[in-house]
Amino acid sequence: MKKSLENIGKYYMLMCKVFQKPDKWNIFWKQFVVEAHKLIIDSIPIVSLISIFIGAVIVLQTANNLENPFIPKMYVGYMAKESLVLEFCSTMIALILAGKIGSNIASEIGSMRITEQIDAMDIMGVNSANYLILPKITASTVLSPLLMLTSLIIGLIGGALIIILTGVINLSQYVDGLQYSFKAYYIFYSMTKMAVFCFLITSISSYYGYYAKGGSLGVGRSSTKAIVVSSGLILVFNLILTKLML
User: Interhelix angle for 171-179 vs 128-166, to 10°?
Assistant: First the structure.
């Protein structure tokens, strides 16, 4: 308990240092672009690969379980859409990103800590937390909803492809299901969750990397802690946001 409270306090103090006005905005925006490419753009291939297969699996499972002839087959598309929008494209993708992005950030900043690069910045009067962490948090939080939309589109395409290949239902029935009872608020809800989750991933991973110690083994431990804590908090905040927004 004492260790947890200490971590919360250190995390809060670090965030106070991070969310200060950058000394030079042009440097901040350059770093923002670099981090956006490294954290978001480079994540599109793995997100797309997972989404297309998950979309196909959801369609197959739903079609095989709708055996009642009185239930319209269009509900396959409807249920696939709802499953992807409400949970998979935000929560499941965020858990995947916790491993990919979280380990990347924690190991990068942790390596700078143990090689004393961060100490050198502090000696020169540079706000190292602001310089290193703020572009990462900003880029991932602002642009991560685009990953959610990408996952949704690719997942729905994956469902359509498996229908074309297997013929479990008619493609027109699938499209009718996608259009049935469409709620734009669900898109907003999922994008909001994704932004919150990515803020948690980047800030927590940065915290563990920033305070890494113990050489290369310490960096490895920091990366592991970052992934575990981020994943746990994603599930907690998923419950909180669902209760508040739905």
Answer: 140
Using the structure block, give the residue that is written with the tokens 């700078």: 112
Contact (Cβ atoms closer than 8 angstroms) between residue 72 and residue 173: yes
Please list, in sequence order, all residues whose beta carbon lies within 8 angstroms of the beta carbon of residue 195, skipping any fewer than 6 positions away: 141, 142, 144, 145
**Number of separate domains in the chain:** 1
Instruction: Judge whether 8 lies within some domain.
Output: no
Question: Other CB atoms closer than 10 Å to residue 65's CB: what's the count?
Answer: 11
Task: Quote the CA–CA distance of 206 and 222 in Å, as a whole number.
Answer: 10
Per DSSP, the three-state class of 68 is coil
Separation of alpha carbons 89 and 2, rounded Å: 36
What confidence tier does 92 reach under pLDDT thresholds 50, 70, 90?
very high
Question: What span, in angstroms and rounded, lies between the C-alpha atoms of 192 and 187?
Answer: 9
pLDDT in tens, 203-240: 999 999 999 988 888 899 999 999 999 999 999 999 99
Q: Are 59 and 76 a contacting pair, CB within 8 Å?
A: yes
Distance, in Å, from the CA atom of 64 to the CA atom of 232, rounded to the nearest integer, reads: 33
Q: Which domain holds residue 227?
A: 31-245
DSSP class per residue in 118-139: HHHHHHTT--HHHHHHHHHHHH
Beta carbons within 10 angstroms of residue 28's beta carbon: 16
pLDDT of residue 71: 82
Asked if residue 134 belongs to a domain, the reply is yes
Where do the DSSP E strands lie in the chain?
Answer: none
**Is 143 inside any structural domain?**
yes
Whether the pTM exceeds 0.90: the reply is yes
Query: Which whole-number Å values give the CA distances from 5 to 1, 14, 28, 83, in the listed order?
Result: 6, 14, 31, 36
**Distance (Å, whole) CA 86 – CA 152:** 10
